[in-house]
Amino acid sequence: xxxxxxxxxxxxxxxxxxxxxxxxxxxxxxxxxxxxxxxxxxxxxxxxxxxxxxxxxxxxxxxxxxxxxxxxxxxxxxxxxxxxxxxxxxxxxxxxxxxxxxxxxxxxxxxxxxxxxxxxxxxxxxxxxxxxxxxxxxxxxxxxxxxxxxxxxxxxxxxxxxxxxxxxxxxxxxxxxxxxxxxxxxxxxxxxxxxxxxxxxxxxxxxxxxxxxxxxxxxxxxxxxxxxxxxxxxxxxxxxxxxxxxxxxxxxxxxxxxxxxxxxxxxxxxxxxxxxxxxxxxxxxxxxxxxxxxxxxxxxxxxxxxxxxxxxxxxxxxxxxxxxxxxxxxxxxxxxxxxxxxxxxxxxxxxxxxxxxxxxxxxxxxxxxxxxxxxxxxxxxxxxxxxxxxxxxxxxxxxxxxxxxxxxxxxxxxxxxxxxxxxxxxxxxxxxxxxxxxxxxxxxxxxxxxxxxxxxxxxxxxxxxxxxxxxxxxxxxxxxxxxxxxxxxxxxxxxxxxxxxxxxxxxxxxxxxxxxxxxxxxxxxxxxxxxxxxxxxxxxxxxxxxxxxxxxxxxxxxxxxxxxxxxxxxxxxxxxxxxxxxxxxxxxxxxxxxxxxxxxxxxxxxxxxxxxxxxxxxxxxxxxxxxxxxxxxxxxxxxxxxxxxxxxxxxxxxxxxxxxxxxxxxxxxxxxxxxxxxxxxxxxxxxxxxxxxxxxxxxxxxxxxxxxxxxxxxxxxxxxxxxxxxxxxxxxxxxxxxxxxxxxxxxxxxxxxxxxxxxxxxxxxxxxxxxxxxxxxxxxxxxxxxxxxxxxxxxxxxxxxxxxxxxxxxxxxxxxxxxxxxxxxxxxxxxxxxxxxxxxxxxxxxxxxxxxxxxxxxxxxxxxxxxxxxxxxxxxxxxxxxxxxxxxxxxxxxxxxxxxxxxxxxxxxxxxxxxxxxxxxxxxxxxxxxxxxxxxxxxxxxxxxxxxxxxxxxxxxxxxxxxxxxxxxxxxxxxxxxxxxxxxxxxxxxxxxxxxxxxxxxxxxxxxxxxxxxxxxxxxxxxxxxxxxxxxxxxxxxxxxxxxxxxxxxxxxxxxxxxxxxxxxxxxxxxxxxxxxxxxxxxxxxxxxxxxxxxx
Amino acid sequence: xxxxxxxxxxxxxxxxxxxxxxxxxxxxxxxxxxxxxxxxxxxxxxxxxxxxxxxxxxxxxxxxxxxxxxxxxxxxxxxxxxxxxxxxxxxxxxxxxxxxxxxxxxxxxxxxxxxxxxxxxxxxxxxxxxxxxxxxxxxxxxxxxxxxxxxxxxxxxxxxxxxxxxxxxxxxxxxxxxxxxxxxxxxxxxxxxxxxxxxxxxxxxxxxxxxxxxxxxxxxxxxxxxxxxxxxxxxxxxxxxxxxxxxxxxxxxxxxxxxxxxxxxxxxxxxxxxxxxxxxxxxxxxxxxxxxxxxxxxxxxxxxxxxxxxxxxxxxxxxxxxxxxxxxxxxxxxxxxxxxxxxxxxxxxxxxxxxxxxxxxxxxxxxxxxxxxxxxxxxxxxxxxxxxxxxxxxxxxxxxxxxxxxxxxxxxxxxxxxxxxxxxxxxxxxxxxxxxxxxxxxxxxxxxxxxxxxxxxxxxxxxxxxxxxxxxxxxxxxxxxxxxxxxxxxxxxxxxxxxxxxxxxxxxxxxxxxxxxxxxxxxxxxxxxxxx
Lengths: 1096, 532
What we know:
The structure holds 2 protein chains of 2 kinds.
Chain A: E1 6-13, H1 15-26, E2 29-31, H2 34-39, E3 43-50, H3 52-60, E4 65-70, E5 73-78, E6 97-104, E7 115-118, E8 124-126, E9 132-137, E10 144-148, E11 155-158, E12 164-168, H4 173-178, E13 180-183, E14 186-189, E15 197-200, H5 202-206, E16 224-227, E17 239-242, E18 258-261, E19 264-265, E20 277-283, E21 299-304, E22 310-325, H6 334-348, H7 356-364, H8 375-379, E23 384-396, E24 400-412, E25 421-434, E26 439-455, H9 459-468, H10 492-495, E27 501-519, E28 527-546, E29 552-555, E30 560-563, H11 565-568, E31 572-595, E32 598-621, E33 635-661, E34 665-676, E35 685-696, E36 710-724, E37 736-738, E38 747-748, E39 753-754, E40 758-760, E41 771-784, E42 789-805, E43 822-840, E44 846-863, E45 884-887, E46 889-892, H12 896-901, E47 913-915, E48 929-932, E49 940-950, E50 953-963, E51 966-968, H13 982-986, E52 1019-1021, E53 1024-1037, H14 1040-1044, E54 1049-1063, E55 1085-1095
Parallel strand pairs in A: 2-5, 6-12, 18-21
Antiparallel strand pairs in A: 1-3, 4-5, 6-9, 7-8, 7-10, 10-11, 13-14, 15-20, 16-17, 18-19, 20-21, 22-23, 22-55, 23-24, 24-25, 25-26, 26-27, 27-28, 28-31, 29-30, 31-32, 32-33, 33-34, 34-35, 35-36, 36-41, 37-40, 38-39, 41-42, 42-43, 43-44, 44-49, 45-48, 46-47, 49-50, 50-53, 51-52, 53-54, 54-55
Helix pairs in contact in A: 1-3, 6-7
Chain B: H1 3-6, H2 10-20, H3 38-43, E1 48-50, H4 58-61, H5 76-92, H6 100-125, H7 148-165, H8 182-197, H9 207-223, E2 245-251, H10 265-269, E3 280-282, H11 284-289, H12 316-321, E4 322-323, H13 336-340, E5 371-372, E6 391-397, H14 398-411, H15 415-426, H16 442-456, H17 463-469, H18 473-478, E7 481-489, E8 492-501, H19 517-520
Antiparallel strand pairs in B: 1-3, 2-6, 4-5, 7-8
Helix pairs in contact in B: 2-5, 2-6, 5-6, 6-7, 6-8, 7-8, 8-9, 8-14, 9-14, 14-15, 14-16, 15-16
């Protein structure tokens, strides 16, 4: 038996004390109305090693009270409110039959404390901690069992002489509606929500194999657009957008949601141990207004797990994963490369660089001096490992509860020759202390140390070399020496290794939080005061070490090798230490009370956040030898010590009132008065209001006839004004900075002395203030078919004004002004989202749930600064926020005749893009570009969460997808010598006769002004449907062997992410979530993993 | 720093002025830095060729220049940004407390720099809007293009004002080179007035314009502080600061530490056999412009020039400016693997040689089979390829002023005076060519003036504008860029000449750059003729 045996011998004690004793000995939690308990007369108990049920039965024997046990919580209620019969009497009649039974919920979990009564009698019992019961029955043939349990639907079952029976109880709609949801600064029951809020469960988060939990959110929730743009270890965080693109300000910053972890803004959700996640809530509509000036892009609230009283629960999660690049474009081989660039030279009227004889030798491929290298294949390896171990302990007593966990992640990179890796040691301890009846403390400490080891040369440069290096250069010459690439040792296989040094970054993050919660019933009932302070710290230490490396060039004519060692790099060490501190203080006065049919929950609060960062950088060059990677070994000449500092702050007074009448008419009011340091002192403060209303129609009397079909129906409406202050500080001031780019240094005197230079920044805008968003939402929540089918539907309208943008298009360049960020833009983002989930869960062994969620968000520019003389068809206004502006083509010219008969760019010939003359001026100019009303951000995104369970087996899958999105793919834009992907080569134009069906232009590179242009020919549909995350698992429970070795539960799983994708980009070797024009970013990865969870 | 501190502390004000020196062209080969059009200009005219099209010169060379595509030659917004910063300075400087002599000097420097910014604009675009006050958010942004002559007057006024404020020389030696001086302002005035008097800008052949140009050049000469470089070899003139230099921009070797940075001009000028890039290579046209040793044009049948032994008996400057097949180059110790590979310091541009497409790093071989010797510092270590050399870019030097003066005097009919100054340049120590025939006149003399500028000022950014102001660009561009192929048969080399890059020129449009479309779309400015 895992639960306590209770021994109490007390005479004439208050019930409260008795409950206290049982609580202490059993480790169970108790929920009760203390007034009700205090009203009861004293009791006497004489119990020796009895179960909790027996103890409780003894307590309540003569009292008008009953109880129910849910999980490890005892709920005490007055007997009159229960259908059930407490204090079962089992010996009153002659025994005729004994029935053994087991009660579970729909997921198969045993229910302790369910009441079983025989209809029409007073005979009954309740289930023990394992959900089992025994009952002696007079008339087993005709007896009808009535099984009831709080939160579940009462069931009646005819016994029909059975002696064993398993009963599955279904959750009553009420329980679903009772689920508590974390919303801004407070919690609300799901049933009383008026906002468009989604809660993501920890199961979904744990299925994700990336160390960044943002990747777990793809396809899970409506209203959330998730894209992963890179698989680089430690830097694979997904890009999140709540309901699409609301603004065009500031490029990528200022469009994502505010992240709040355990009430503290700006914490890094991606570094939370997935096993610690209790829930993730999205605030998608005006309910986010409680976050004021940072609310406009939605809010993601992450809540971590806290301890429950009871014996310690120890859990281990471990897994081993393998990463594999999803896609990478195959490139041409040596002779194809030479052919291509000879073609280009002919077009450019220059001498052909490659000898036809040489090309033939490469083509023949039988001379060891003439081989071809697939550099992509050399730079990346097929599989890179990743491991994770996590351990957590959770438990506590009535007064102290804890949840403590630790996690270790080690992720290697797919660079074949690299030590690049990412490691994270993660620790979290959430402790709750009840000091007395009124006062609770919580102490939360989270700390992690991340170590990111990177090559000294950045990924962009490595990738650039990888696709620019001649395929006729080998990685290693035939004598085994590494080749030097295009010179200066630029062999990408070496560049990605530690040969050229390293760039190592250590992040030490410490997130402590201390909170207090004081109930003040002695002042007035329902009054409380609470508050917390958090002092988040991030220390970053970056050591960048660059040193020369050995790489060789080879002279075929003389058969000699030359070491390029001394020309590869000047040794250099740069060390940067940076310290960021973000302090949050929060104080709240809360009031929760029910007055008859009126339920009021309200709070007023103050919050302030201050941030400061200082960093120090020291650099020395020309180290003594390349073995000692220390600053002191560098030369004094050109040594550098510098630093930087930044700060910001926000303060707010805010409050919220939730009101419900009879639980069916709901209203919320939010007000936030917010100040932001980013603006001039007289422009810092603003008011952000929101109102939300809800109506639970299913609670109305007239709805009763419909209840069997529609179990729950609620309408919601909300409106609010929220802000975004995502611009850098001090835009309201004129600034001058010391010039630090060596390209702009000036020198004077015959000794070439460097001068100090000051350069002006942009013109100040003293009136700069936050962006404002008018957010409206209408929603319906519905549950049908005995709560199996859940439907949520929302329509929204976000009107953003005062968008912060630089008016760079209308002011003449001859003014020389770089205008500051001004509140000039307007955009409108409208759409809808819905989620349907069907969950089939019965006592059958096979259970499943299927869902669909979908988000449609259409952004439109209402006002953006544009050049006054721009043609109408190029205007941004009225179009999607990130729409493309490209030439419209009729493919390419195949014949000289086609060129001559149509307007063309100067010098155009067959094989060039056939650009359409949109303005019919007889010339091709940039005025002929047209706006394609699509961007890389999808207008429609969707998810399909699927789950199947058969006995211990379960299969969970999340498909995620998007459509109405376009990317541009133009690999030749990368460099003058870029190696074309095979699809560019195979489909290129060579001559009118040879390639009558060519789809792509003749040989070209980045300098080609007729073909290296934005054109619809390169724009591709970025729609995809991909199996984002999947997991197949088997769970062992009630296994004797495991129990004997102390394991209560064991779960084995195999899973993965980015498993496959259906889309139109496979042909180009481009991942559908990759938006890089030429593909020089660390590619996305597919992960396969194996793991286990053990519970002790 | 805030507004208040910069304009109340003279040392910060000076730091602001120092930054404005970025207006001037410099030696840096920063692919994306348009103000550094120093090298790019020579590859966009018949002077040379840029193998890697680093500045997208091909747009100009192919005649495909449009308001949408100016290669990397679009300096419109950059120069107006610089002018705005100059105007901000000029509007604030008078109120800055402190030493008035420093204040006046700084004002002179910035006036010179503003004049230079306008000079760069007008030679590319013709007349542009003129602004002498800074814009702010509340300004009226409307403007129209001033005429070319109005712009010239504006520039000349700035030069005059600057000349009055600037010292002839800086007392402290730490500012001797690189800072604007009285002479620099006067030299700029000479150049802009020469442009204004030239055929392209002087439709009605107004002789008073030539007179002004002559006077301005003479004023610099009469200042008496500059002397022709008299040291030898001549090539040192472009490596070590010397009294011929009137204005230069300096770049220290200090900041060059990886392949992606500025690695020293030696790297991008030298032949591939020295691990150079041959990025900018001289054209056959430039090579052919060098006289024979007896001072004759090679087209002169009496010159004795033999195109199968083309490098013998040439103007000494040829050996100082150009690397050609057989020319020894560099320091033996600084290019070790060339010798390991059996080479010598002599360039091997012939087919199969170390500096040909079968040598080291063969993608870097010179297509014209020449490299520039000018500006290269032989103390540069090709073993390491790292920039260890200081460099300067010549903005003005005395021999340019002599040639300006000679050209102006020629156009005023004073042939003797013109010949005198041509000879000063040609007979300087280290060059010592025979004097020109004193009876030269008319077109024949003008050809020699043109030839002298082409040779003496090569790779200094003059030729591109000279062929335009003389209205001969159509011919020089359409001739394409020529080079040589040298074949070795036994010990005998044979030379065959041909076009290595065909070029096209749309006349008259390409005499000027188009105003960028982005500007046309936001203003009511008149586009230059021939562009839409």
